[in-house]
Amino acid sequence: MRDVGMVMPVYNQDPLYLTLAMNSVLEQSYPHFHLAVVIDGANEQTRNQVYQYEKRKTRELRLLTSRPTRGFPVRLIQDLIF
Fold this sequence. Notes:
This protein is of the alpha/beta class and 82 residues long. It has three helices and three strands. Strands 1-2-3 form a three-stranded parallel sheet, sandwiched between helices. Helix 1 (15-26) runs parallel beside helix 2. 15% of the residues are buried.
């Protein structure tokens, strides 16, 4: 089976929508995937909510964080390509 990589950019999301999006990805039946959550200068509430998912470690999850906001394309280039 092939691995699938997904990138989820996050910036000050409504807690409900962030929960729905994270659960949608992490509850997939396909077992061979990696999720990179890019937190680009998000507020404390958003960062804490994503960190709660990291603590569970139910799936392959990588968090990429930065302060201040540099923009998703910059974070993608810096953290995933190099």
